[in-house]
């Protein structure tokens, strides 16, 4: 009897040792970690999806980062597991079997709704997957669900707080309930930060990838306009809208970027024009050590109204970051000046005027092509919000941007003048600054440079840069000229690897 018990104990210890040595922790796992676990039979896509669904059920009531979970996510996971078992060609893609949350303004032709956070689009039917979703599916990624957002990508009202929408209500920054989750891709950022998903997609018109990435301590890439398709995305402005990855590491963001860039016949003009910027063999080769060496990085300290904070507190906070860049081989070009600054900054004033007119035209076109929809125009959406004000948590008047957009009548003289001025501001402001000083990137605190990048269709990458005295996260942004993603990736990866500032939010303290 004693021998049997001893044998049982020995067997148990051996089994325990085996479990410990093969144990795999999903939280904070990268795509590479997950793929390695897949191929070592430590993890399946089904288990991964089950884990994330469990985390969503546990955490989402607090953070309001996910609007819907895909009821077919487990079926997609089982399919991925079988493809991996069969060594199917698709199983060799880095995103194969990886769950992705997409912002709820990005169309999916499945059982999920695409509503931009509004009840007005609930039960609408899209004609097809968005271009970026189609590319994700082709790579074998699993569409886990829809991430929450600031309603209508924060273009319903300036009075609504970041992260609020009628369907999911107010999203919460996981690093502190009093902290602004920032921008409109709030759910995409929060879900990644809290490990409710591996990676996500966000969209940006002006700051909505860069700002929530900074505020929630993740990496966000805002691509060059047209590098990723906007087809199937609830629009604001074809002149400024873009789709990009939001992830915990630069490497994961690059994997996602590689998967979603390229030509799309449904966004043909923009994607054809930008396709020339895609490097042969993709972006992965730009994740290399020493990426900061020799890079010329510009710093502006005197132009807060151009989107760059110059208060003493901010500058002092970021001096250590500038030193890190220098120590890793970057050449910092400081105290840059913009010729005719007052004239150029005045041209920014037309951004909202242009966006309102573009929004009405683009949204009406989007709504009309839906297979089914409760609303078919911006006017219908405004009427819906008035009729169903009881569904809202903000007052009826808080659709002021909608009301102003509805007053517009196409792109007239004033709108054309505003758009022309924005183009001039880009050419004689940001572009001239970059080229005259032979800069590889402009460095800005937080997401303060988002507007110059937005109006010119330029790319930017936000990387976690630390935490303030209240443990609030903040990022640093590297922005460049159109098509400069390879260089920006080298810079961002170099900074990330030199610092590794990111740490997960203190979720246990908030449960």
From TrEMBL:
Residues 1-21 form the signal peptide. It comes from the Eukaryota. Keywords: Signal. Residues 48-447 form the Amidase domain. Pfam families: Amidase. This is Amidase domain-containing protein. It comes from Tagetes erecta. The lineage of its organism: Eukaryota, Viridiplantae, Streptophyta, Embryophyta, Tracheophyta.
């Amino acid at each position: 009897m004693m021998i049997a018990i001893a044998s049982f104990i020995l067997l148990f210890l051996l089994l325990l040792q085996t479990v410990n040595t093969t144990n795999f922790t999903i939280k904070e796992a990268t795509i590479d970690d997950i793929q390695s676990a897949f191929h070592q039979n430590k993890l399946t896509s089904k288990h991964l999806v089950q884990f994330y669904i469990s985390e969503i059920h546990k955490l989402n009531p607090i953070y309001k980062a996910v609007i819907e979970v895909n009821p077919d996510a487990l079926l997609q996971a089982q399919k991925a597991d079988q493809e991996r078992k069969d060594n199917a060609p698709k199983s060799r893609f880095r995103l194969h079997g990886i769950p992705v949350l997409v912002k709820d303004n990005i169309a999916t032709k499945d059982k999920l709704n695409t509503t931009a956070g509004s009840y007005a689009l609930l039960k609408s039917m899209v004609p097809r997957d968005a271009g970026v979703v189609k590319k994700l599916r082709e790579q074998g990624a699993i569409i886990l669900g829809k991430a929450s957002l600031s309603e209508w990508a924060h273009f319903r009202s300036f009075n609504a707080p970041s992260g609020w929408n009628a369907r999911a209500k107010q999203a919460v920054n996981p690093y502190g309930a009093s902290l602004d989750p920032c921008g409109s891709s709030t759910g995409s950022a929060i879900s990644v930060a809290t490990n409710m998903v591996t990676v996500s997609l966000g969209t940006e018109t002006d700051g909505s990838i860069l700002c929530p990435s900074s505020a929630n301590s993740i990496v966000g890439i805002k691509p060059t306009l047209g590098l990723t398709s906007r087809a199937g995305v609830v629009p604001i402005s074809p002149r400024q809208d873009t789709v990009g990855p939001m992830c915990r590491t630069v490497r994961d963001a690059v994997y996602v970027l590689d998967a979603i860039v390229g030509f799309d016949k449904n966004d043909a003009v923009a994607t054809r024009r930008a396709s020339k910027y895609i490097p042969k063999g993709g972006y992965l080769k730009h994740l290399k050590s020493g990426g900061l060496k020799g890079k010329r990085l510009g710093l502006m300290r005197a132009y807060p109204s151009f989107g760059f904070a110059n208060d003493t507190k901010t500058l002092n906070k970021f001096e250590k970051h500038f030193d890190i860049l220098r120590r890793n081989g970057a050449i910092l070009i400081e105290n840059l000046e913009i010729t005719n600054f007052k004239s150029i900054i005045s041209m920014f004033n037309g951004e909202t005027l242009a966006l309102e007119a573009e929004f009405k035209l683009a949204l009406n076109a989007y709504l009309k092509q839906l297979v089914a929809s409760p609303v078919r125009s911006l006017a219908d959406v405004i009427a819906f919000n008035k009729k169903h004000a009881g569904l809202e948590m903000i007052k009826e008047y808080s659709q002021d941007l909608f009301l102003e957009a509805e007053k517009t009548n196409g792109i007239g003289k004033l709108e054309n003048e505003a758009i022309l001025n924005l183009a001039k501001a880009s050419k004689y402001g940001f572009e001239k600054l970059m080229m005259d000083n032979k800069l590889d990137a402009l460095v800005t605190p937080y997401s303060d440079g988002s507007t110059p990048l937005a109006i010119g269709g330029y790319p930017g990458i936000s990387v976690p840069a630390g935490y303030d005295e209240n443990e609030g996260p903040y990022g640093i942004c590297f922005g460049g000229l159109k098509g400069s993603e390879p260089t920006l990736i080298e810079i961002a990866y170099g900074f990330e690897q030199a610092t590794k500032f990111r740490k997960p939010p203190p979720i246990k303290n908030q449960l």
